[in-house]
Write a structure and sequence with these properties.
By secondary structure, the chain is α/β, with parallel strands linked by helices. The chain has helices at residues 10-17, 47-61, 69-73, 78-87, 105-119, 134-146, 156-163, 165-168, 180-189, 195-206, 210-215, 219-237, and strands at residues 23-25, 65-68, 95-98, 150-152, 176-178. Strands 3-2-1-4-5 form a five-stranded parallel sheet, with helices on both faces. It is built from twelve helices and five strands.
Length: 238
């Protein structure tokens, strides 16, 4: 996944300034990355390490993290599901699950329109309600109905549907996408968490393969570039 260190992401900028906004998460944010198929002798990222380095700090920093019910249903790995269940409704690190059944009749009609509009760009078929791309498409459709603005994912589909909203006519023009590298940088820059662990996670996600090393900067240059474009914003938030 190629990262962008040249331009400010307005959605990320808003999160830096205001942590109390509702942020929807894709399932892959909770699941530790596994790139073992790209490199020999590279293991999957251990959930215990991922939880300590990334998930726990994320839940501490942002009090209104949310998932759509279809994303919650994708939590089938026992360690991931147990972790999510532990934090749903937790006062100190709340995580909210949003359900379609709570939509009004008018909202349900609008939801179906968004499902049809977005699904044509994916492998999801609303009529069959198949599993491929289901969490992303139903999450974004629900968010569009309720006018939630921020989605966090590490998958090309939601990134494309949001970033190319005008070109694809998805009607997601007001929505913003947050990617893991931005959150890794924020947690690192806060100086409150495991900097070495965050560096290792960044390298695992974005600087592991030969292609990664062509497309993305190494950790030091990544931090330097991000600090340059977000320096004033971080100064304001401290």
């Amino acid at each position: 996944m190629r990262i962008d260190i040249d331009r400010i992401n307005p959605a990320f900028k808003e999160l830096i300034k205001h942590h109390d906004q509702v942020i929807f998460l894709d399932a892959n944010i909770f699941i530790p990355p596994d790139r073992s198929n790209f490199q020999k002798h590279i293991a999957a990222f251990r959930f215990e390490d991922y939880r300590t380095v990334f998930l726990d700090p994320l839940l501490l920093e942002f009090p209104k993290l949310s998932v759509h019910e279809t994303v919650y249903d994708e939590m089938v790995v026992s360690s991931v599901k147990a972790y999510v269940d532990e934090h749903i409704g937790n006062e100190s690190s709340g995580l909210e699950v949003h359900y379609d059944r709570n939509l009004s009749e008018e909202e349900n009609a609008l939801l179906n329109l968004y499902l049809q509009k977005l699904s044509v760009h994916s492998g999801y078929d609303p009529a069959a309600d198949n599993s491929k791309d289901r969490g992303e498409i139903r999450s974004l459709s629900y968010m569009a109905v309720k006018r939630y603005l921020y989605f966090t994912a590490n998958d090309a589909l939601p990134i494309r549907l949001i970033k190319n909203a005008k070109e694809l006519e998805t009607d997601l023009d007001d929505m913003g996408i947050i990617q893991p590298y931005e959150l890794i940088f924020y947690l690192y820059e806060s100086k409150k968490y495991d900097g070495k662990g965050l560096r290792i996670l960044y390298k695992y996600l974005y600087y592991l393969t030969a292609r990664d090393k062509i497309e993305n900067p190494e950790w030091g240059k990544f931090v330097e570039a991000m600090e340059a474009i977000y320096e004033d914003l971080f100064d304001e938030s401290r």
